[in-house]
User: Fold this.
Amino acid sequence: MCILVAGFINFKQGMSTIRKQSILSSIVIYIGFAIGLLNTYIFGREEYFTTEQYGLYSLFNALAVLFSSLAAFAMPAFIYKFFHYYKDNLPHRKNDMVSWALLISTIGFLLVLAASLVFENLIVRKYSENSALFVQYYYWLFPLSFGLTIYTVLEAFALGLRKPVLMSFFKEVEWRLFTTVLLILFMAGVVKDFDLFIKIYAFSYPAIALSILIYLLATKQITFTFSVSKVTRRFFKKIAIFSFFVYSSTIIFSVAAVFDTLVVASVLDDGLAKAGILGLATILTSVIQAPQRGVINASISSLSRAWKAKDLRSLQHIYERSSINLLIFSVVIFVLLALNYTEAIDTMKLKPEFKIGFYAFIFMGLTRIVDMGSGVNAQIIATSIYWRFELITGFILMACMLPLNYFLTIRFDITGPGIANLISFTIYNGVRIWFLWHKFKLQPFSKNSLYTLFVGAIVYAICHFAFAGIHGFPGLIIRSIVAVVLFVICIWRFNLSPDVRPVLQTLLNRVQQMRK
Assistant:
């Protein structure tokens, strides 16, 4: 099904490149998620890790994203925006973009580290009661965060070089394989306890950052120079203003992305354990969101070029096709996960307390549907001359999300963050959709968007009530197969996406050629 998401453009040669790269990126990303689900399964078994330990793992990942976003000083966005200006106007050896980006990000991390040490006492007071394990391993968060900071800068540079598939491999596959190997060593007794496990895990992001750096150096696609180039001098003011506004919005989005986990860990009884339960729901919703990463990775460069050429037709095409295909995929995966959530926990003998997170998953999954169904609106705005508007929408998101998360978490326990996110992201995406229509007459929806939601509701109802009495692996398999068959029939019969038939026909043709 990832092909349905990835095959979203057949418009020009550049568009077909996006489709091919999106397909490959989505496949790689889902291989990574399969590995990630295996890791989650091991974490969820009673005999290996406690729920609190899994909660620490989830909290570490959330905070690493936050710290790296704060440290990077918007350098990845700077690379996305100005990559072609540097590449088209400078010889390779004089391209100073990545050198300054890495230096500024490193300085930014040192500032984040200093601030974290200054506010250590506050963090200890806030988390010592409900999340004591986090306080114990607080310092080991920093190598994890630094590795992710460097990786995001190098990833942005490689995406400019049109290497989305390789970047998906490093982040989605290699990083999770690092964790898998570590888990196997833990189960085998080589890594003797959780203390050593979490300390080694702290170097997982530095490992993938080193991998991409070695690749770029070995292929001679990166050079380092701190001589200020003519492009840097010419665009310095624009770069500074752009980076300031993007960094402001990045802080907002990064805090919004992890605030639910931070609130759960700090204000609820057994906060770290409940953060682990919320972490499972978050991982499953990230499975829904995975194709969005492939589409974004493959489309950023083309969006940037389309704006440079003032090609609104291409922008509308990307916007519309990304919306319907991502919506179809998100609905299909959400229905499959919702149908099997609690049954899978029992069948696979995971910790029973994970069932508490079902309704949190439902609301978080609906949030992903809203976000993915809105298409690549964030990337269209971010690569346009109106990139400052991202900051405005960020403030709107923050103004909705922070108070709602806090009060709804207190009121509804771990279901509260899911409700808060659904409300906040619906408002947030609604404002961005309105903006793009008001400014450029760009909009992502069609009647097929409504039909897709209707089909999803019908398929869920049929499979839920028809197979409610079938448990264990037979139930999981039957519900999933019937749901997928019904979706495929409806998508094909009603032609919900114009990309489905050509892509499937191409696959059938290749299968027939292989048989000859």
Notes: The chain has a mean pLDDT of 84. The CA atoms of residues 42 and 48 lie 7 Å apart. The chain has 21 helices and no strands.
